[in-house]
Design brief:
The chain has one domain: TIM Barrel (Alpha-Beta Barrel). The strands form 2 sheets. Strands 2, 5, 6, 7, 8, 9, 10 and 11 form an 8-stranded parallel sheet that branches. With 311 residues, the chain is an alpha/beta fold.
């Protein structure tokens, strides 16, 4: 199997076109890391924003091609940042969370047909089963990838990362459970697939210092959250930010995501919101305080929670 973290991919068809467009270097080294989940036209209302229609996903990939973007794995991005540099040209990193079976039927074929790559973060306790962690959203029966499908993805050059064992809110788990949630998936994936598993995506984007340290101690070399910001050299490699791609994001809105360049003020505001939201969750989970906070959040932003709300 090829190692998705070993070298940079070849440019996509169309790379080199529109060279006048902004590159990562011209944007302070910041790179958009996009976060997708499921590729489907069917979803319960609570999960709808995380289910990307297949035709829209293919339109996104075609836009990358036409606009001269090159796709990279998350490991390649981390390697560049660790070296104190960034990815060349017009890079984009595609990440796909959870490990739904429709990655095998929709996502992987669309990527391989275009010579593109991505990083798949897998919830290992659900492999070959269904998305038990989504029962509360009415999606507990959504099928997940099996080991054969994961092996095929790894063999096609898709980087495999971990998304914990059972998809809990890691910052609210006990110490022993936390160790299991972050360490066991890495061992499972490496033993069954024979590939290095370097990175973990925090479920829901939630983490704290204790979680970060547990991930590093488990042998990972990086981890990612959400916060809906492009990330850049000098950012914490165990808290790299990603951009949520909701189901309604068409090509024009996608291009705005790709070219977003947050100011220091934007970055500070995003991290402040994350800390406030953590306190709200501690104080009022399930109660009127939480409900009021969510209403205020939605009224102000029209978006998910400040941590990103990643599934």
């Amino acid at each position: 199997m090829c190692d998705p973290g070993a070298s940079l991919p070849l440019p996509l068809r169309g790379a080199g076109q529109r060279a006048d467009r902004a590159t990562a270097e011209s944007r302070g080294g910041r790179v958009p890391v996009l976060m997708y989940h499921s590729f489907s036209t069917e979803a319960a209302p609570a999960f709808r924003r995380f289910a990307m229609p297949p035709e829209r996903f293919r339109a996104h990939l075609d836009h990358f091609d036409a606009a001269g973007y090159t796709t990279h794995t998350y490991a390649q991005l981390v390697n560049a940042f660790r070296a104190g540099t960034t990815l060349p040209g017009r890079p984009v990193v595609i990440t796909v969370d959870d490990g739904f079976r429709d990655f095998a039927t929709v996502g992987l074929p669309a990527l391989t047909e275009r010579g593109m790559t991505a990083t798949l973060f897998v919830t290992t306790g659900c492999i070959g089963s269904t998305a038990h962690f989504l029962t509360g959203d009415g999606e507990g029966d959504r099928p997940m990838l099996g080991w054969t499908e994961l092996a095929a993805a790894a063999g096609a050059g898709i980087e495999i990362g971990a998304h914990t064992l059972t998809h809990p809110e890691l910052d609210r788990t006990r110490r022993a459970q936390l160790r299991t949630e972050v360490a066991k998936p890495k061992l499972m994936l490496e033993q069954r697939l024979g590939v290095p598993v370097r990175s973990l995506a925090y479920p829901y984007g939630y983490y704290n210092r204790r979680v970060r340290d547990a991930v590093e101690n488990a042998g990972y070399t990086s981890a990612c959250t959400v916060l809906d910001l492009a990330c850049g050299p000098g950012d914490d490699l165990f808290a790299l930010t990603r951009l949520t791609v909701a189901d309604t994001i068409g090509v024009p809105a996608l291009e705005r995501l790709l070219t977003s360049a947050p100011s220091r003020r934007d970055i500070a505001r995003a991290h402040a919101k994350r800390m406030v939201w953590r306190q709200v969750r501690r104080i009022g989970a399930g109660g009127p305080v939480m409900a009021a906070a969510r209403a205020l959040r939605d009224a102000r932003t029209g978006r998910g929670d400040p941590a990103g709300g990643a599934r």
